[in-house]
Amino acid sequence: REQGWHLRGSPLSWQVLAYNRHTYATVSQRLVITVIPAPGGDPPYQGEFLVGNRNVEELLPAAVREMFLQASAGVWEQDDLQVINVTSALDRGGRVPLPIEGRKEGVYVKVGSHSPFSPCLVSATSPQSRFRCSLGQQPLASCYDTFAPHFSIRWCNLTLLQVWPSPTTPGPVWGPGVLEEDGSFQPPTEVPPQDLLPGFLVTLLVPLAVAVLLCLLLGHLMCCRREGV
């Protein structure tokens, strides 16, 4: 990322650098992305699936993501799903797969909906299912796995989240120091002149008088208090 702005609706300028894993050839491209809020707001119900038989670049095409949403709708029992985020398992601490045919790095795909989770998803994340996962067994699921055979879901890594919108921050309040629309600025009246001489004399003479007294006292102690004087 080269530069960007945090305001929604403002453009984000990204510079993407990619390399070939076999030849190590590199290529760069600059992308300008405009971020706008979702029409219906962020979906409050979000589920994150770990796809074990895919790499992150294989989930980026729109056709593949649409196929994943159709498979997700089968277990979610809703059709208003949308892909929120796609993250490589390597960015979550996963290991680089061995250079063996068919081994993939894994992808975390977060899907959101405005409808509650289905009983199938809830049962897959229940304490009983987590206990079965700790024993190396498959979690409980009361529905047919519609992801197979295209997507191999690791159900023990399923995460369900409920994200509620945070309260909006109130906007600025017009105060007395802010001009109204089409208002004219009225400068403050001229301050009457003040006599600063007394303050100047006090500031200067008081420390000077204290210094003179200290000098006289020190001279008396050093010159007039000697033995024989």
TrEMBL record:
- One Pfam family named in its UniProt record: Sarcoglycan_2_C
Outline the extent of the Sarcoglycan alpha/epsilon second domain: 44-160
rRNA-binding found in the keyword field: no
Q: Which domain of life is it from?
A: Eukaryota
Q: Which InterPro entries match?
A: Sarcoglycan_alpha/epsilon (IPR008908), Sarcoglycan_C (IPR048347)
Coiled coil, from the record:
none
Membrane-spanning residues: 196-218
Matching entries from PANTHER family are given as: ALPHA-/EPSILON-SARCOGLYCAN FAMILY MEMBER (PTHR10132), ALPHA-SARCOGLYCAN (PTHR10132:SF16)
What this protein is called in its record is SGCA protein
Identify the keywords attached in UniProt to this record, alphabetized.
Membrane, Transmembrane, Transmembrane helix
A GO cellular component annotation here is: sarcoglycan complex
This protein's species is Calyptomena viridis
